[in-house]
Amino acid sequence: MKKVTLVLLGTIFLVAMTGCGKNKLSITAEDVTTNTIVIKEDNTVQSSIVEDFDKDYYSQEELEAFINEEVTDYNEKNGEDQIKMHSIHVADQKASVVFNYNDIDDYAVFNGINAKVLTTSQALQDDSILSVVEFVDAKSGDTVSRETALSKEGATVLVIQEPLDIKIGGTILYYSNAQKAEKDVLKASGENVTVVVFEKKK
User: Which branch of life, at top level (predicted)?
Assistant: First the structure.
């Protein structure tokens, strides 16, 4: 996965994740069990990463210090408080970290991945998803065309290619290359680009 991950090199780790703001939809490091991205109503992003932490020489204190150093370095280059570490949890030989991000661009840059949020009109012209020709209607389960899925004015489009859970602060209308896990939660394998069309909560 092309992103900042918990890199197990001795006691040094590299992590990344998302979120920002005091929205109802939120995750914590103690609660998450899998890599997750949360797109909130105000366009801020939160995400988690969960990795093995099963060596005697791994140190939570050193992990946390390293993450804070990476966050500080990013913010010094890109603007104050663009990223914050929300929480960290180590238990049962697993390490979980949750980050808050100012927006999807900070999430993408910090993690070194392709992820973006577009309008439907922008998505229709976006080269990275021209190959996505079929979508699933989240309500009916029916297959619809790309043009139908991207026809709703005012809807928002998430484009991402990562193996993770996707949580939306709104109502999912259509999606491609993902499986519906529960209401407004999708599971993406990362093998192909995932596109999610949704309406934000008012």
Answer: Bacteria
User: What's this model's pTM, rounded to 2 decimal places?
Assistant: 0.85
Residue 74, classified by CB atoms within 10 Å of its CB into exposed (0-12), middle (13-18) or buried (19+), is middle
Question: Are 63 and 29 contacting, i.e. CB atoms less than 8 angstroms apart?
Answer: no
| pLDDT per position as a tens digit, 174-200 | 999 999 988 889 999 999 999 999 998
**pLDDT tens for each residue of 129-176:** 999 999 999 999 999 999 999 999 999 999 999 999 999 999 999 999
> Is 19 within 8 Å of 47 (Cβ atoms)?
yes
DSSP of 115-141, one letter per residue?
A: EEEEEHHHHHH-GGGTT--EEEETTT-
Q: Which amino acid is at 22?
A: K
- Short-list 9, 51, 8, CA closest to 33: 51
DSSP class of residue 105 equals: H
Q: Do residues 123 and 157 lie in contact, with contact meaning Cβ atoms separated by under 8 Å?
A: yes
Torsion angle of alpha carbons 193, 169, 164, 150, nearest 10°? Answer: -10
Scored b (16 or more CB within 10 A) or e, 38-69 reads bbbeebbbbbbbbbebeeeebbeeebbebbee
> How many CA atoms are closer than 13 Å to the CA of 49, on its beta-carbon side?
22
Eight-class DSSP state of 57:
T
